[in-house]
Design brief:
The chain is α+β, with helices and mostly antiparallel strands. The protein folds into 3 domains: 53 residues, Structural Genomics Hypothetical 15.5 Kd Protein In mrcA-pckA Intergenic Region, Chain A (Roll), CATH 3.10.290.10; 87 residues, 2-Layer Sandwich (Alpha-Beta Plaits); 82 residues, 2-Layer Sandwich (Alpha-Beta Plaits). Helix content is 23%, strand content 30%. The strands form 4 sheets. Strands 7, 8, 9, 10, 13, 14, 15, 16 and 17 form a 9-stranded mixed β-sheet that branches. The chain has a 4-stranded antiparallel β-sheet with strand order 3-2-5-6. Strand 13 and strand 14 form a beta hairpin.
Length: 244
Amino acid sequence: MERLQKVLAQSNIASRRKAEEIITAGRVAVNGVVVTELGTKVEDFDQITVDGNLISRAETKYILLNKPTGYVSTTSDEKKRKTVLDLLDDDIKETRLYPVGRLDFDTAGILLLTNDGDFTKRMTHPEHMIEKEYLARVEGIVIRKKVVQLRLGVIIDGDYLAVPKAVRIMELDKAHQSTLISITLTEGKNKQVRKMMEAIGHPVKKLTRVRYDFLTLEGVERGSYRFLKRHEVKKLYANSLPKK
């Protein structure tokens, strides 16, 4: 069973918040009976009408996109920049899809998109500890002392202690004076990796998210996407259960 407002949102009737307003206004009926109570749950076979019109339920979709730089992780942009939805085929765009979290305009890599609000909440809330791994090419040679400093945590945004789940040096390029470093996070502060590297004196030159929990970029070229398989969605839900 699913909550009525979730079904309305997934059916492209309205956003979740607007769907709640439609319900409380008495415009929605389930099997001919007007429902005004939020949180009402419905079955797959229930008939739902809005203003007397029968709705057709939209299928939940889950997409893994390999985002290039130069795209914003929103459904629209007031600056008229390209959004990640511009990378989808036209028939997919007709579904009310939105990004799960975000990747910065100048960051590439794994970005999930869906029309499932509960899934988005589960994947993005810090308490669920979903791992995201980033590969950062940074300026200069990162010495062991700086790696230890990162692992212990660094202050960003004035007073926030950012502590990564893991840090690994992948490559030291002494010829070009740069370092390739892997950082795994379970949170998602704005520009967190960039701010953390700046805090130790090694600004990021290039940043890619290469792993989202167990999902990787394997088989998905930059700018393209694939649908998640049912067992992958179930595994993401399982991995996001509270840790005992």
